[in-house]
Specification:
single chain; transmembrane; 297 residues; phosphatidate phosphatase activity
């Protein structure tokens, strides 16, 4: 007998409905991804690509004080979205599903953030491209040959090998991908909760929901100002982060044009979708009928 492709036979267990509804598989996935990424980031070594000493694109100074340090970027990309999700859920969430809405929303955010981190760091190590400040990290020998391809081990004199290794991790930009995986997810989530695609809602809702995207873009651009990344690194990182954010969001919520865009797929509460209609006080005609009658005039 073939195994059910959706349940994989786990529906024989009494706890299966709870396991599915509360996305326990995603809860388990997060620490697994975190551990794998810890190995990728802290233990595995990036590919050491050859370079030219006098390449002006990698001869920028090393910035000691970054505009958005790693810790601050995590606050912007993860902590602040969590706080905003909690606040908006508390204000707009129906009591019948408020707890579940907040739980699924935050879980989706964490999945987006940590899955993106793994993909980003794995690609960084595999690509091995030089940061714009690579030569400053390398501190090449005075007699190092110019206009020829060399290896870091042959010409670099720095004693800070960790800093040197990180110099091979420019593509894609980690700050950019993290920012868009967290703030991009938050933007999509706000669009769904504020029903920005509903014909009766104002444009201000879309503007509010888009603010996190602006924040993510500013974080990404700051990496070029610190000479930590080339513009292409920032673009690729932003695209990667937002792609993961969209994937994670759409796993849990309907498309933004849905009248139930605020309600998770697996929410079994009796909270109803917002009807795409209003009763007109003068005619008693609903909104959709009103549109049809006007189109027929």
């Amino acid at each position: 007998m073939a195994v059910d492709r959706i349940t994989l036979g786990l529906d024989n267990f009494s706890v299966y409905p709870v396991f599915v509804k509360w996305r326990i598989g995603d809860v388990i996935l997060i620490p697994i991804v975190f551990l794998i990424n810890s190995y990728v980031f802290y233990i595995s070594y990036p590919f050491e690509r050859q370079f030219v000493i006098n390449d002006v694109t990698i001869n920028h100074p090393f910035t000691e004080h970054e505009r958005v340090p790693n810790e601050v970027n995590m606050i912007y990309s993860l902590a602040i979205p969590v706080v905003i999700i909690v606040i908006v859920t508390s204000l707009l969430g129906d009591p019948r599903h408020k707890l579940y809405l907040g739980y699924i929303s935050i879980l989706g955010l964490f999945v987006s953030f940590f899955v993106n981190e793994l993909f980003t760091d794995a690609l960084k190590n595999w690509i091995g491209r030089h940061r714009p400040d690579f030569i400053a990290r390398c501190i090449p020998k005075a007699d190092a040959p110019r206009d020829v391809l060399v290896f870091a081990k042959d010409v670099c004199t720095t004693k800070d090998l960790l800093r040197l290794a990180d110099g091979f991790r420019t593509t894609p930009s980690g700050h950019s991908s993290s920012a868009f995986s967290g703030l991009g997810y938050l933007s999509l989530w706000l669009m769904g909760q504020l029903l920005t695609e509903h014909p009766l809602t104002g444009s201000w809702r879309k503007v509010v929901a888009a603010v996190p995207l602006l924040g993510a873009a500013l974080i990404a651009i700051s990496r070029t100002e610190d000479y930590r990344h080339h513009f292409v690194d920032v673009i690729l990182g932003s695209m990667l982060g937002f792609t993961v954010a969209y994937w994670s969001y759409r796993r849990n919520f309907p498309e933004l044009s849905s009248n139930a865009s605020f309600k998770p797929y697996l929410d079994d509460s009796d909270v109803k979708a917002v009807e795409n209609a209003i009763i007109r006080a003068d005619t008693g005609e609903d909104y959709n009928s009103h549109l049809l009658s006007n189109n027929n005039v």
